[in-house]
Each structure stands twice: as structure tokens, then as C-alpha cells.
Amino acid sequence: MKSLFYVALIIMGSLKAQAQKVGHPVILLDQSGFYPGLNKSAVVTKDATGDGFKLIAMPAGKSVFTGSLSGLSSTGYSGIKTRIADFSHFNQPGTYLIRIPGLDDSPVFKIADSVHQDLAVAGLKAFYYQRASSALDKDYAGKWYRMSGHPDTAVLIHPSAATKKRAAGSRINVTGGWYDAGDYNKYMVNSGISTATLLSAYEDFPNYFLGLKVKLSKAKNSVPDILTEAIYNLRWMLKMQDPYDGGVYNKCTNLGFDAMIMPAEALAPRYVVAKGTAATLNLVAVAAQASRILKDFPQ
After folding, report:
1. Which of 221, 17, 208, 37 is nearest to 121 (CA)?
2. Torsion angle of C-alpha atoms 194, 196, 201, 206, degrees rounded to 10
3. What is the predicted pLDDT for the residue at 79?
4. In 10 A of CB 218, how many CB atoms?
5. How distant, in Å, are the alpha carbons of 68, 69, 86, 229 from that of 45?
6. What percent of the chain is modeled with pLDDT above 70?
7. Contact at 8 Å (CB) between 57 and 45?
8. In sequence order, which ranges of 117-267 are alpha helices (DSSP H)?
9. In this structure, how many other beta carbons lie within 10 angstroms of the beta carbon of residue 250?
10. Which residue ranges form the domains of the chain, and what is each CATH number?
């Protein structure tokens, strides 16, 4: 499932972070980094020699802070005993690692303002790469550019979704939207939570997202990029509602999953499948939230 929520914009993947050794680190921390004025700590998952730790400035290798590890702790959900290395009182921006006698060094991390900026950009840009019915231009997608696939302008009504006014085999336009994580289908419930969390991220942090640019095609300068991307999927969601009875189709799908091929090579017939309460409620909730937010951007 491709449910991406705005907490994931903070945690989902700045791949610039680097581990010092192959394998699992035994000193666990936020490899994207820490903010100077906020709490900073690491979790130690293996017995250490002694009770102290050092903060090492990189690349000089100089110790700039020393501290004491907490006592051993464990939970009922794991047999792992852990200790905490808290260095919240150290606020000097820079690049560091934690060194504990007898253990491998921690991954390198930063202390800096905006340490999650790259992560937020990557998290939001991930939605752009999932766009269906749209080419990804090289100017915007870089090495991941591709041709458009699944136009979905003449999708068939599946027998499970047929009504008197929309008979099985009749065709409707449900272009747009996002592909799901592992296939080329488009799911109302999955994209509902995804769209809602983008909208919630903007509502919770409007000033931040007003200034966040991720280079999206056809983005309007007056509309924040996070809303531009949400709108792309919302327009598809609106097409999935039957205008005759108000019900909402669960998904746009093939009868079988596409092979591991590019979207432009996937030519199997597409269908909208049975309406459902969950799909309908997702559309209603997301549309209401979007209406509240987008009234400030009338164009």
C-alpha cells in the first residue's frame, strides 16, 4: 500500500546518510541529522565497554563532547537491552559520529538547521514519480523520465460495477491519479489516505510548504507544490464517482497484474470495479478537506 503520510516526509529516506560499516549499526540514530536546539539521542543496542560515549567531529576525528550512557532498558516486545546516549546539550552545527569503546562507530550525521529539507523534497517528489496517464519529462524526472502509460480515457465498466445507466462494457474516462506501490492499478482507499495526508501536511505547516519547491511539471507559482501534487490525484478521484447514484468505484485495474514492464508497454484492458462504502467515504472526506484548503487558491 502506498499510504504516505506527512510524518513519512520526515522519516522516509534521505539516502545521503551513510553507514560506517556493512551490516546493521549497533548505535541507532536519525541519520538525516538533528536540529541544534532540539533533543538529540542515540540508542545503543549492544553491550559497551564502560559507561561513556564521545561525539566525534568529522572529518577531523576530534572529540567535541563526552557523555554518560543511561542504564539498561528493555520492553516486553523485544529481548534487546538498550542504553541511551543523550547529547541534547551539544548544539554546534557540523558533521559528527558517536564513538563508544568496544562498539563500531555510529553512522555519520549532521547537526544543522533544515536537516530534513532533502527528505521532505524526496518524500513529496515520490508522488510525482507515481503519476499515471502522464509522461515524466526529463527536465523534471531526471534519470527516471519515462513515456506516458495507461491513458485510462476509455476504461471499461466491470460487471461487478454495472448499473442500468452504466452497463457492463461501457466506457468512462478515469485518466490521471497515482499508481500504487507495487502495480499499475489505482486504488481509491490507498490514494485517499495519501491525498489526505498531503493536504493535512499543508494545513499543519502552511508556511513551510508555501516555500517548498520540488520542481513539478505544470506547477503554478501561486499554488504550493504539495497542493499541486494532491490536486493531480484528486482530479482522478472525482472521476471515479458514478454521477447517477453517487457511488464510487473501488479501483481502476487490469483483470490481472501487469508484468514488470514500463507503463507505456502495459496495454491490457482496464476496468473500474465494484463500488464500495470505503471508497465513497474516502472521496467525500478528501473532497471536503480539499474544498476547505483550495478555496484560497481559486485558479
Report:
1. 208
2. 140
3. 84
4. 9
5. 15, 12, 14, 40
6. 91
7. no
8. 117-129, 138-141, 188-204, 206-210, 225-239
9. 23
10. 19-107 (2.60.40.10), 117-294 (1.50.10.10)
- The pTM assigned to this predicted structure is 0.82
Amino acid at 27: I
Cell of residue 150, nine digits: 495507461
DSSP labels, 96-125: EEEE-TTSPPPPBEEE-TTTTHHHHHHHHH
Cα torsion through 43, 46, 47, 52, rounded to 10: -30
Distance CA 39, CA 209 (A): 24
Average pLDDT for the chain? 91
Matching residue, cell 519515462: 146
Residue 95: burial class (beta carbons within 10 Å; 0-12, 13-18, 19+): middle
pLDDT given at position 219: 66
How many other CB atoms are there within 10 angstroms of residue 37's CB atom?
A: 9
Q: Which residue intervals of the chain are DSSP H helices?
A: 6-11, 117-129, 138-141, 188-204, 206-210, 225-239, 277-294
> For the segment 165-174, what is each residue's pLDDT rounded down to a tens digit?
999 999 999 9
**Rounded CA separation 64/97 (Å):** 11
